[in-house]
Automatic annotation (TrEMBL):
Family, similarity comment: Belongs to the SecD/SecF family. SecD subfamily.
GO cellular component, one term: plasma membrane
Stretches that traverse the bilayer: 455-472, 479-501, 507-529, 550-572, 578-602
Function description: Part of the Sec protein translocase complex. Interacts with the SecYEG preprotein conducting channel. SecDF uses the proton motive force (PMF) to complete protein translocation after the ATP-dependent function of SecA.
Quaternary structure and interacting proteins, as annotated: Forms a complex with SecF. Part of the essential Sec protein translocation apparatus which comprises SecA, SecYEG and auxiliary proteins SecDF-YajC and YidC.
Lineage per the UniProt record: Bacteria, Pseudomonadati, Pseudomonadota, Gammaproteobacteria, Oceanospirillales
Listed name of the protein: Protein translocase subunit SecD
Topology class, membrane: Multi-pass membrane protein
The UniProt record lists the keyword Membrane: yes
Gene giving rise to this polypeptide: secD
Subcellular location: Cell membrane
Domain Protein translocase subunit SecDF P1 residue range list: 230-287
Length: 616
């Protein structure tokens, strides 16, 4: 029979629409600005009386509190807007001091019955939710210097193991030089080192009575080191951002030596910058013996007491690169510490070094790359010059009581915050080269809210104009098309929420475009029905023929648009991808609503009924 669907098809359409409605509804419940308060002592819960003090102070400051909840040893204060959120953090931090950790957060507001279906709202991008945008530059010269220093340490160990005497090592740009007492030692060392380190070009020089071996990195090796540096930094930054708990962050390479980091929803920009940009690393070294030559030792002060210092061996046992995991805790005296686990190679090197040096002191050296900006005059114009420098300081100097293995702990830290940040940096991995902030841009939550309001207004205006056109042009069938258009918007929102897609301003543009294109299929179908009616075909036959003959044209048109969207997604970045995602999903949902949903409504209205005239 013409214009009749079997029962299962009606039920299938109904199920799809109900599921779409359920997963679209959480978007009507945006996240609440909140302040998260937890005890500074790991594993403990802040006393309720302390939270009452904070609540009373907030009431006196006329801060509107929506709710106060306790979950997983933490307290969560929900607030109405971001201004109250910032005031709450300031008040709570002043009241609780070092006894608590106060952090900005966003709390889910989705009702429990929707959460039972694992339904959650769409993630908002940087331009809608607010957050920070960083442009970072990788110091490629420092990457080469670090690699040369590591190679130099390995070469010295190799020479000592073979009994070859050397005097000094020096790093300069792309080269590494070692001085020897005579030509015979130099030539022997050259043959030994060149077999183990093929990435260098070797040459000999005479320096007074000393013989010098100069090793220069090849161009290919330089390129490989620089590519490794930026790729390793990308991995490390992604790990750090994941530790921050940022939803849908963006960390990607830009050009040969720059990295873009976008953190939507981050409001504590100082903390984010400190964690993202930290280039801290650790080195474990033995304390030098009194008879150690000066050329093999270095002197460092303690970070928390510059009046104290110690002489360390230049050779490094292991670095933070060998750390497989790190966690913060407290020792038996309640002082902060970091528990360290090394990987297999690091554990072997640590065991070998400590096994033969029981009773000797081992130091933990904290290394941090920083930059200092100063303004200079060049050609009559002020120019900001960035000068990098390195700070090195001892965290601890402890006696080796027994051979260490893969697991041990670091003490001597100043505060739980320092222990938490150090463990985070070690867990996420050290940067292969220092990075510097070239550009920092902050988008406030209020600007994000304004963008959302304007985006919603554009969607509403677009929806209204299309709906009016369809009603005026196609009357009753226009009503069918408008209902399908609204359901298309629901399904589009639901699919994006289920996929965890990020909604941005270009994504909203994609939604507006989808709304305009969604009725194209109905226009083709309705115009075809009109044409068949003008040709004298019966009402039922005209409806059937209109849907059948327009189907091919609709599929062809949407497939070509979908291919363009897929290409945009594959080669585009950031905003272009956001536009492509919403456009792709919108094409699929609009085909479902235009071809199946409107046909179902038309069938229910006119199917198998004697109809003499269509309002179309």
């Amino acid at each position: 029979m013409l214009n009749r669907y079997p029962l299962w098809k009606y039920l299938l359409i109904l199920v799809v629409l109900v599921v779409g409605l359920i997963y679209a509804l959480p978007n009507l419940f945006p996240q609440d600005p909140a302040v998260q308060i937890s005890s500074a002592q790991s594993g403990e819960t802040l006393d309720e009386s302390e939270i009452e003090r904070v609540e009373n102070a907030l009431n006196e400051a006329d801060v509107a509190i929506k709710a106060i909840e306790q979950t997983n040893q933490q307290w969560l204060i929900r607030l109405s807007d971001t201004e109250d959120q910032l005031r709450t953090k300031e008040i709570a931090s002043d009241l609780l001091g070092d006894d608590a950790t106060v952090a900005l957060n966003l709390a889910e507001a989705t009702p429990g019955w929707l959460q039972a279906f694992s339904a959650s709202p769409m993630t908002l991008g940087l331009d809608l939710r607010g957050g920070v945008h960083f442009l970072l530059e990788v110091d490629m010269d420092a990457a080469l210097t670090q690699r040369l220093e590591v190679n130099g340490s390995a070469m010295r160990e190799l020479l000592r193991s073979e009994g070859i005497r050397y005097r000094n090592t020096e790093v300069n740009d792309r080269s590494l030089s070692i001085d020897f007492a005579g030509e015979e030692d130099r030539d022997t060392a050259r043959g030994l080192i060149s077999r183990e380190f093929p990435d260098f070009e070797y040459s000999s020089e005479e320096e007074g009575r000393a013989a010098r071996l100069v090793m220069t990195l090849t161009d290919q090796s330089v390129n490989e080191i620089q590519d490794y540096a930026i790729n390793q930094n990308l991995t490390t930054l992604r790990n750090r951002v994941n530790e921050l708990g940022v939803a849908e962050p963006l960390v990607q390479r830009q050009g040969p030596d720059k990295i873009v980091v976008e953190l939507p929803g981050v409001q504590d920009t100082v903390a984010a910058k400190r964690v993202v940009g930290a280039t801290a690393n650790l080195e474990f070294r033995l304390e030098a013996r009194p008879d150690t030559p000066d050329s093999e030792t270095e002197s460092f002060s303690f970070r928390n007491d510059e009046s104290r210092s110690a002489d360390l061996m230049r050779d490094v046992i292991v670095t933070g690169d060998s750390v497989s995991s790190a966690s913060r805790s407290f020792d038996e005296n309640g002082r902060p510490q970091v528990n360290i686990d090394l990987d297999g190679t690091g554990g072997m090197l640590m065991n070998r070094a400590t096994r033969s040096n029981i009773g000797r002191n081992m130091a933990v050296l904290y290394i941090e790359h920083k930059t200092e900006e100063r303004t200079v005059m060049e050609d009559g114009e002020e120019t900001i010059v960035r000068e990098p420098y390195v700070e090195r300081g001892l965290i601890s100097l402890a006696t080796i009581q027994s051979a260490l293995g893969n697991s041990f702990r670091i003490t001597g830290l100043d505060s739980p915050t320092e222990a938490a940040e150090l463990s985070l940096l070690l867990r996420s991995g050290a940067l292969a080269a220092p990075i510097y902030f070239v550009q920092e841009r902050t988008i406030g939550p209020s600007l994000g809210a304004d963008n959302i309001d304007r985006g919603l207004l554009s969607v509403q205006i677009g929806l209204l104009l299309v709906a009016l056109f369809m009603l005026i042009r196609y009357k009753v069938f226009g009503i069918f098309a408008n209902i399908a258009l609204a359901l298309n918007l629901v399904l589009l929102t639901a699919v994006m929420s289920m996929l965890g897609a990020t909604l941005t301003l270009p994504g909203i543009a994609g939604i507006v475009l989808t709304l305009g294109m969604a009725v194209d299929a109905n226009v083709l179908i309705f115009e075809r029905i009109r044409e068949e009616l003008r040709n004298g075909m019966s009402v039922q036959q005209a409806i059937y023929t209109g849907y059948q003959r327009a189907f091919t044209s609709i599929v062809d048109a949407n497939i070509t648009t979908l291919l363009v969207a897929v290409i945009l997604f594959s080669i585009g970045t950031g905003p272009v991808k956001g536009f492509a995602v919403t456009l792709s999903i919108g094409i699929l949902t609009s085909m479902f609503t235009a071809l199946l949903v409107t046909r179902a409504m038309v069938n229910l209205m006119y199917g198998s009924k004697p109809v003499k005239k269509l309002w179309i």
